[in-house]
Structure formats: structure tokens, C-alpha cells
Amino acid sequence: MYVILVYDMEADRTQKMLRLGRRYLVHVQNSVLEGEITKGDLAELRGKIEDLLIVGESVVIYELSSESYLDRTVYGEDPKTDDQFL
Amino acid sequence: MYVILVYDMEADRTQKMLRLGRRYLVHVQNSVLEGEITKGDLAELRGKIEDLLIVGESVVIYELSSESYLDRTVYGEDPKTDDQFL
């Protein structure tokens, strides 16, 4: 399945979510990760997100059974080149 | 169709994108908007995004023909209550 993950964390904690997310997905923009993921890995990632979040922070996971349902258009610099980000 | 829009702007220009985006979509998280949109409105929004962006900024639009292809899970505070954001 294909997943888009967006996160909104306390400023000093964004790196924690980014490190976690990048073990499963590609970092495509400031607080956005996306990519193919297995059901097992997604379940694992969900659990770790729940453990990580504190009050005031949020994560939204958009899940699609296949990337084929999705059209992705980038304006400006295509952020999918991972090396642009820490 | 259903759209998820994520944006990465210069810090002092995020409000411009937010104001533009909120005329068409719901602001759901720090730099994320989503919602149902007509083809005409989406074409209009695309044009305005292209006019607005400067070098170093990026917008990614994820488009689905229907929200039914999408499962959305929120962890932490559900940001879809719009009044939480400027």
C-alpha cells in the first residue's frame, strides 16, 4: 500500500519523527513523508508514532491501497530528492 | 475529486499560501490542506500556486478521483477543526 504521512511536532522534536519516519518512508518535504509500505511495517510505524507523540502534536496518515489511485504534482523544487533534507 | 496539498514556503510567506489554499480546501495541519474540489477550481488553484511560488519553495498536490480511495488516520490532536489555525 501507499502512504502519505504529515506531522506537526514541537520544534525541538521534529527530528525524532523524521528519523522514525525515514526508516519506512521517503522524506519529501518539510514535514511530509511518503512511499510504499507493507501492512506489517505500517502497523509497526503506527505503534511507534503513538509512543512518540506528546500533547499538542499530531500526525495524519493517508493510506491508499495503491499508488495508482494517486496523481502527484510538484510545484517549485521537487522535494523527493531525499538529500535536500537532514 | 479529493486533494491533499502540502507546502514548504519561506517562513514569512506561509500565510500567503495558507490564505490562497483556504479559499479552496480545509487547513488540517501546519502546512497541509485537504478537501473535495472541482476540476475547474483545482485548475484555478494550480495557476495561482505557480504565480505565487518563488525559488526554494515547493508545493505538492496529491490528487485522487475520490476520497473513498483514502483512509485517513489521525494521531494526537485531530487538526481538522479549522479554528485551531490562523
UniProtKB/TrEMBL annotation, chains A, B:
GO biological process, one term: maintenance of CRISPR repeat elements
Catalytic EC class: hydrolase
Residues that coordinate or bind Mg(2+): D8
Cofactor: Mg(2+)
InterPro entries, sorted: CRISPR_associated_Cas2, Virulence_VapD/CRISPR_Cas2
Assembly mode: Homodimer, forms a heterotetramer with a Cas1 homodimer.
Role this protein plays: CRISPR (clustered regularly interspaced short palindromic repeat), is an adaptive immune system that provides protection against mobile genetic elements (viruses, transposable elements and conjugative plasmids). CRISPR clusters contain sequences complementary to antecedent mobile elements and target invading nucleic acids. CRISPR clusters are transcribed and processed into CRISPR RNA (crRNA). Functions as a ssRNA-specific endoribonuclease. Involved in the integration of spacer DNA into the CRISPR cassette.
Protein name from the UniProt record: CRISPR-associated endoribonuclease Cas2
Species whose genome carries this gene: Halopenitus persicus
